[in-house]
Specification:
Blueprint: E1 2-10, E2 13-18, E3 21-29, H1 32-41, E4 47-51, H2 52-57, H3 63-72, E5 77-80, H4 86-94, E6 99-102, H5 104-108, H6 110-120, E7 124-131, E8 134-137, E9 142-147, H7 148-157, E10 162-167, H8 179-188, E11 192-196, H9 202-206, E12 215-218, H10 220-223, H11 229-236
Parallel strand pairs: 1-4, 1-12, 4-5, 5-6, 6-7, 7-10, 10-11, 11-12
Antiparallel strand pairs: 1-2, 2-3, 7-8, 8-9
Length: 237
């Protein structure tokens, strides 16, 4: 199981939200690139970056910061937030990004996903954010009519190989992941599932080990020193 240290960018700074609420923000640093270097030095194998401004505004906002991250580390970087067009995908890949995460747009336009996967293959990741088991969209401000699992199956049928699955109720809370939801998703679809939301300790990370997920995103627990990244990477392996 792989550990993905998370960097959330808002107004050019490194932040964390509580349960995805834009009015509950903690700033952890002025330089996302310096943060990425820190996580790489501690054994981070793949950096997970979210453009929060982009998610809210529906277009990439922090491209320069994302480019700086890619230039400052040698490990791969994946990013999401505000990806709505093929040009958005191309712009992110031009920054040096290895994988682009499509969220809201995937819910409203499966043809777009089909086209993106046909053109970019494994570089396309789908972000599924669930609120009470239903898919949420537009920076988590609204919910759709799909259950997370049925939507994941639809995405896999279009050729998607990797899904980032976030449980919004636990995100940023440090209260533990939704283990059963992650297990259900990993069992339901033939794709790599990256679990996200609620990690508050090394035990929380290890609780996901036998669920079948490929990796786990760790954010606030790293920033509040509840999880030692180096130790987490070793134990997760």
């Amino acid at each position: 199981m792989r550990i993905y240290p998370a960097i959330d960018i808002k107004d050019g700074k490194c932040v964390r939200l509580f349960k995805g609420r834009f009015d509950d923000v903690t700033v952890y640093g002025d330089s996302p690139a310096e943060m990425a270097k820190k996580w790489e030095a501690q054994g981070g194998e793949f950096i997970h970056v979210v453009d929060l401004d982009g998610a809210l505004k529906g277009h990439g906002v922090n491209a320069e910061k994302i480019k700086e991250i890619c230039e400052s580390v040698s490990v791969p970087v994946q990013t999401g937030g505000g990806i709505r067009t093929m040009a958005d995908i191309e712009a992110k890949l031009a920054c040096g990004i290895s994988r682009v995460i499509i969220g809201t747009k995937a819910v409203s336009d499966s043809e777009f996903v089909k086209e993106a996967v046909a053109k970019y293959g494994d570089k396309i990741v789908i972000g599924i954010d669930a609120k009470d088991g239903m898919v949420a969209v537009e920076g988590w401000e609204k919910t759709s009519d799909f259950t997370a699992v049925e939507f994941a199956k639809k995405m896999v049928s279009l050729g998607v190989k990797t899904i980032v699955y976030t449980d919004i109720a636990t995100d940023g809370t440090l209260a533990g992941p939704n283990v059963e939801a992650m297990r259900e998703m990993a069992d339901a679809v033939d794709a790599d599932i990256i679990a996200s939301g609620g990690i508050g300790s090394l035990e929380d990370i290890l609780s996901l080990k036998d669920t079948g997920v490929e990796g786990v995103i760790v954010g606030k627990a790293l920033y509040t020193n509840r999880v030692d990244l180096k130790e987490a990477v070793e134990k997760a392996r």
